[in-house]
Amino acid sequence: MKVDKIISELTYKAVRSSGAGGQNVNKVSSKVVLSFDLKNSQALSEEQKELVENNLASRLTTDLLLILNCDEDRSQFRNKEIVTKRFLELLKKALFIPKERKPTRIPKSVIRKRIKDKKNISEIKKNRKRPDF
């Protein structure tokens, strides 16, 4: 994954933030909307695109656009940094392939020990009985 190339493909849009903030909200466009076109991306290979499409299916639009918002800070620049960082983490998680689990086998010595212990306990219980004359 080439981070510089991916960041160059991102498009940012500044929008007026909603919610409380007084006059500042009405004057300043501090909310940042990031969009990434997965279909036309040159930075990702076809396999990577397929992996991202499968893992982020619920977050993609029908045109395979990934859209993220950030209006946490009053600064547009800081919101841009936050949303870019969030996007890169999301992409990294989507591209992660977990290792295939190999089922472990129970060693024969453990099986032998278990059977031996069972026989031992069985013998102890047999010896509790009243002797038969």
Automatic annotation (TrEMBL):
It comes from Flavobacterium segetis. GO terms for molecular function: peptidyl-tRNA hydrolase activity; ribosome binding; translation release factor activity. One of its GO terms (biological process) is rescue of stalled ribosome. This is Ribosome-associated protein. Belongs to the prokaryotic/mitochondrial release factor family. It comes from the Bacteria. Residues 16-32 form the Prokaryotic-type class I peptide chain release factors domain. The lineage of its organism: Bacteria, Pseudomonadati, Bacteroidota, Flavobacteriia, Flavobacteriales. InterPro entries: Pep_chain_release_fac_I, Pep_chain_release_fac_I_sf.
